[in-house]
Amino acid sequence: MNISFLQIILLTLLAFFSIYDELAAQFVGTRPVLMGAITGLIMGDLKTGLIIGGTLHLLVLGVGALGGTSIPDYATGAIIGTAFAVATGKGIEIVISLAIPVGLLMIQLDILARFTNIFFQKRIDKAIEREDVKAIQRNVIYGIFPWGLSRAIPVFLMLTFGSQFVELVINNIPKIVIGGFKVAGGILPAVGLAMLSRFLPISKFIPALILGYVLTSYMKIPVLGVALIGIAVSIAYYQQKMSNFKINTEKKNELKNLITEEGEYED
User: Fold this and answer.
1) Least enclosed by CB within 10 Å: which of 94, 198, 225, 247?
2) Is 177 within the bounds of a domain?
3) How far apart are alpha carbons 69 and 118 in whole angstroms?
């Protein structure tokens, strides 16, 4: 595999940037097609990068890391897949079969990064109690590094030691570690949902919450189907509100005109 040291460094920085960009909600680093294209430019083959990134992008359409959920990081998979495809000249199908396990492996590292970042969050809490603004700012910046390194280090090692390193890591992760990550990954969405529930006006939309739960849990309707039902209900609700608003406005105008004509109108 022929990848220069400069290319490895650039792709490692790209992997670091991709997760930082996701946290900053810029929506560039989370898109495999863009990561594949940038990797293709670095490797000198934009077409291959677009093909691999676009193929992996199909796997994340409609998927979001909501409520603390860890999802496959196919943006990192696109970086690895494109680099290996250009460097080795192997078929795209073979490289895609390597990029997908890389994306799945990032789930475990994503959970590890979340737990590591708690250290800085605790320091921020203490800094808030002291009203130390500079300490808060420093620890917010420090908190970026566990996330960035969770992508940058694997990419550096994979590009340096080749695809054998990926297979070695995946095949030799202890079952107890995988089990712990699975438990943590299962708890995080529940915790995240509870946190979101505190800030959302759920008490005003209890019927919608119950309806969504029934549709997903009992009727097994996919997320896209539930979303479309939600859109339909929202449109109907909006139209009804607008209709009532127009009717009330017309009645107020009629009453205003009637009172004005009689000369008894007051503010």
Assistant:
1) 198
2) yes
3) 16
Backbone angles phi, psi at 218, to 5 degrees: -100, -40
Instruction: Round to whole Å and give the CA distance between 52 and 85.
Output: 9
Neighbours of 148 (CB within 10 A): 20
Per-residue b or e along 42-68, where b marks 16 or more CB atoms closer than 10 Å to that residue's CB: bbebbebbbbbbebbbebbeeeebeeb
Q: Is the pLDDT of residue 106 over 70?
A: yes
Q: DSSP code of 241?
A: H
Residue 91 token pair = 């078929």
> In this predicted model, what pLDDT tens digit does every residue of 26-75 receive, in sequence order?
555 458 888 999 999 999 989 999 988 888 887 776 566 665 667 778 88
Task: Report DSSP letters for 56-118, one per residue.
Answer: HHTTSTT---GGG-----HHHHHHHHHHHHHHH---HHHHHHHHHHHHHHHHHHHHHHHHHHH
Q: How many domains would you assign to the chain?
A: 2
Residue 223 domain boundaries: 211-261
Q: Do 156 and 56 have their domain in common?
A: yes
